[in-house]
Specification:
287 residues
């Protein structure tokens, strides 16, 4: 677990704070702890930016749902394992026959919009304009080979595009653009928050290198793990050029991208973030 801060204390008005929530699959449940910590400090972000699971967590927060309520909803929803698996099966975008028809290479590929409809908490509006806090959602334009930022119009398709990991979810089409996981171009979108608040916080859940593991990963695990290696490398390069004022890295490296049923353990492992955030921000907020 690490958190580094370059935030100077100020002696005048309370600073505005913007928050970037990065991509990392189930490890992104750590974002809930960040939200809880800022809620407890009374911090309402000036703006939120999210990539992939960061967009999925950022939208409820931007809608006004507290970290505490988001935690309770998540753990309650995942407690019904049978219901979760049934919802995932209903979200399949393909059929077994597609293997032979050439329509889909993966017959169990999922529709990310159906997944969000099944698993987002109630109370999230249809459009960005209805959110309580401005939100930027990052997706990747597959053919344009560049990032697309969504902050107006329909919210659900944009968040679905941001989380559309190739090989797991089908791409999302918005305005005739084919979109996939935002982590392919910008896993931690803090640069979009420059100028939107006095201080920028970034929560990176791409995962650092894990020592000691030597077992050969299964094909799907290798595919998803490789995307995380790519995203970790992109983030490392970004941080060499510019850094958010506060970078947070919860101790979730040993969790896998699809460890969604280990949500309680991911949250517990991330809990020390609260003290680190408060220690870093208290001098600034009371300065």
């Amino acid at each position: 677990m690490s958190a580094t801060s370059t935030l100077p204390a100020k002696a005048h008005s309370t600073p505005s704070i913007s928050v970037a929530l990065g991509g990392g699959g189930a490890r992104g449940f750590a974002h809930i702890v960040v939200i809880e910590a800022l809620d407890e400090l009374g911090v309402r972000p000036a703006r939120i930016a999210g990539t992939s699971i960061g967009a999925v967590a950022g939208a409820p927060w931007a809608a006004g749902i507290s970290g505490k309520d988001l935690r309770a909803y998540l753990l309650g929803r995942l407690r019904d394992r049978t219901g979760v698996l049934a919802a995932i099966m209903r979200a399949r975008a393909g059929r077994i026959s597609d293997i032979f028809s050439g329509q889909l290479a993966n017959p169990v590929i999922l529709d990310p919009e159906k997944i969000l409809k099944s698993f987002w908490p109630p109370g999230i509006p249809d459009t960005f304009e209805e959110l309580a806090i401005p939100l930027d959602v990052v997706a990747t334009d597959y053919f344009g080979r560049e990032q697309r930022i969504f902050n107006s119009g329909k919210l659900l398709p944009a968040a679905a595009a941001s989380m559309a990991i190739p090989g797991l979810f089908k791409p999302v089409v918005i305005d005739d653009r084919v979109l996939v996981d935002g982590g392919a171009v910008n896993p931690l979108p803090y640069t979009h928050l420059i100028g939107h608040g006095d201080f920028v916080i970034g929560c990176d859940v791409t995962g650092a290198p894990v020592e000691g593991r030597r077992a050969v990963p299964l094909p799907l695990e290798a595919l998803l793990g490789s995307t995380q290696i790519m995203q970790w490398s992109i983030t490392a390069q970004m941080l060499q050029t510019s850094r958010p004022d506060l970078i947070l890295r919860p101790d979730v490296d040993h969790f896998r991208i699809l460890d969604f049923f280990r949500a309680a353990k991911i949250l517990a492992a991330s809990e020390p973030l609260k003290d680190q955030i408060k220690r870093a921000l208290d001098p600034v907020l009371i300065g």
